[in-house]
Amino acid sequence: MDVVLRREKRERRLAKRRKVVSDDEEELAHEVRRMDMDVGGARQHRVRARPKKRANRRMLTVEVSDSSVEKMVASIVNTSEVAASEVMRPVEIGVPSEVLVEVPVDIPAEPLKEGTELVVAQIGGTVVEAEGITLPTSPMEEVRPEEGKNTSGKDVKTLEITFPDFLQDSVVPLLKYLDEKESGRCVELEKTCGGLRISNENAQKVTVHLMARLEKSREAYEAAIKRSERLITTTDKQEKKHVEEVATLEIRRAEEVRIADELRGKIAEAKTTEEDLCSKILEIEAKCEMEFRYAEELSTNLFANQQIRSMKSS
């Protein structure tokens, strides 16, 4: 049954996917021809559709989907716009509607434009774009680009840097920031030290309280030991009494075992008598069944004789 169900499911799936190529080929061919006319009658987009009779004769089964057709048409338009004058090579594309389309294969890539390099230098919080920059070695120096690297033909502006300006712009704010940070750290340390003092005082109080509790627990432990010793003595006395009680119980169990053995013998005798009675009852029942069957046979014979007599009289 499972194999049959699987085969039925496969056949249903194949039946859903199978479609005979009919009208989709003609519509796609008309669209491709119209695009060829718009491009200018270029030969690289020749579309050769199979005749309908041949497709119907072979019963070619394909999967037709609108999304795949749209993607193919879009790719044809893009390639026609990019390479309208390039040599085309026919390539067979696996389109769901079985249409042969020629698309360009070797498309030369356009040369990329070489961009100018941007050098970003951060000096005193200002950003400067130039093609070549050298770091100053003295408190005051002109920064100029190297010769032979200016390809744009424009004049590069010179930048004058002084050491006091550098200090005012970068070093002084840095020192202020460090002072503020250090003062904040000192305040935080004072707060943490105060918290540690308070926590130490609390810890001392807790230790005193724990010592008092330890003394109380020691006294309670000693009292518990004395109580356990008393319990041990009482348990010894109870064990002795229990041994005496166990001895008396063993004597009683021996008497009960003897009585039980006697009862088992009587029960066995009763079972044998019961089995004898059951066998006798079965024999009586068998005799009764034989007599009952004999009576039934006699009644059937009498009934048959009466019917024969009635047939003869009639």
> Which consecutive residue ranges, at least 5 long each, have pLDDT under 50?
42-77, 79-154
Cα distance, first to last residue? 65 Å
Strand order of the largest sheet: 1-3
What sequence of helices (H) and strands (E) makes up the elements? Answer: HEHEHEHEEEEEH
Give an account of the 3D structure.
The protein has 314 residues and is mostly helical. 66% of the residues lie in helices and 8% in strands. It has helices at residues 2-17, 23-39, 52-58, 66-82, 163-313, and strands at 19-20, 47-48, 61-62, 100-101, 119-123, 126-130, 141-143, 159-161. The strands form 4 sheets. Strands 1-3 form a two-stranded antiparallel ribbon. Strands 2-4 form a two-stranded antiparallel ribbon. Strand 5 (119-123) and strand 6 form a beta hairpin. Helix 2 (23-39) runs parallel beside helix 4 (66-82).
